[in-house]
Amino acid sequence: MDRPFLHDERSNPPRIIRYPLSAIHNPQFTGVHYVMKRFKRIVVCIDRPEYDYRMVVYAGGRSRLAMAEEVHFLHVTTDAGPDSTEPPEEASEGARITRETLEALIAEHFKGHGAEKLVCEVLRGAPLMEVLRFAHEKDVDLIILGRHYGRAGDADDEALLARRITRKATCSVLVMPEDSPVEAEAIVVPVRDSQCSANALEVACGVAATTGATVTALNVYHVGGGYARVGTSLEEHQALLEAGAKRECGRLLEKVDTHSVKVECRCMPDLHGKPVPIILEVVAGAGLAAVVIGARGRTGAAGVLLGTVTEQLIRECPVPLLAVKKKGECIGILSALLTLAGQG
């Protein structure tokens, strides 16, 4: 790839080169315009430039899929703090070396559609706040990061920072485990009859329409106790719940533009109040898979919460997981956080 990189004015030192954008349309795929509209600006969080080549490969595939206009590659160097004895010139030299390493990584492994604007950035600060601030300022539609992102400071929970970013981001977030497949032949969408599930399923269908992947809408319904008190057996109770789950799937499909993709609806019982192992079992049986799930969005203080299923999947899912959010959710909480951090 022989193209110039653009650098954010806060990168050290800034070097800005204009790269012309062109509109690219691929009428072969029915879902491409939907995906293009949804994910025009992407930021890829690179934790370890010398090792994260899979992130760059994956970003190239997502850029081709969405015909992205901009792809930002962001590395955040942890701020040493006010008591640091590191001379400014050494910090500047370290940023230069990191940026050159990142540029070489992108030049070798990024294979986009050819007309996207590439932006390579190295910033200093707290990774959580810098990623959130950057995504907000650049009006980003999708954040891509590894599940291991930031784990050097949190060895007990490698997904902690990924979960925090997913909670607080105002856009969709794609979390990639290490050694996960770059391409997916099947997409599993855990669903209920809700608007966030409808959003996730529509995104999954848009992706599948461009890639040929299969889509499974998976409704894991809880089988609670107490059925014996009303004179029914477990089998009868489960049959009633499964019928209700199938009706939920039917109502959900009525809300969604499937982009002519055939969606398989599967309804599976959860006898122990633990849906995640059931979801992971379905994912394991799907081959080269990805998971798309609707992240619960709320206003006010609850806006930074994710569903417990999404949280657990971020920690445990062995394949790429896309948490779909309605863009702009949690904006009030994020603005408050950035203001408190002195970045608002």
Describe this structure in words.
- Residues 7-30, 152-156, 297-305 and 330-341 have low confidence and may be disordered.
- The protein is α/β, with parallel strands linked by helices and 344 residues long.
- It has a 10-stranded mixed beta sheet, sandwiched between helices.
- Helix content is 38%, strand content 19%.
- Strand 6 (186-190), helix 6 (195-211) and strand 7 form a beta-alpha-beta unit.
- The protein is built from 10 helices and 10 strands.
- The chain has 2 domains: 32-176, HUPs (Rossmann fold, 3-Layer(aba) Sandwich), CATH 3.40.50.620; 186-331, HUPs (Rossmann fold, 3-Layer(aba) Sandwich), CATH 3.40.50.620.
- Helix 1 crosses helix 6 and helix 4 (127-137) runs parallel beside helix 5.
- It has helices at residues 32-38, 53-66, 88-109, 127-137, 160-168, 195-211, 234-255, 275-284, 308-316, 331-340; strands at residues 41-45, 70-78, 117-125, 142-146, 172-176, 186-190, 214-222, 263-270, 289-294, 321-324.
List the helices and strands and how they pair.
Elements: H1 32-38, E1 41-45, H2 53-66, E2 70-78, H3 88-109, E3 117-125, H4 127-137, E4 142-146, H5 160-168, E5 172-176, E6 186-190, H6 195-211, E7 214-222, H7 234-255, E8 263-270, H8 275-284, E9 289-294, H9 308-316, E10 321-324, H10 331-340
Parallel strand pairs: 1-2, 1-4, 2-3, 4-5, 6-7, 6-9, 7-8, 9-10
Antiparallel strand pairs: 5-10
Helix pairs in contact: 1-6, 4-5
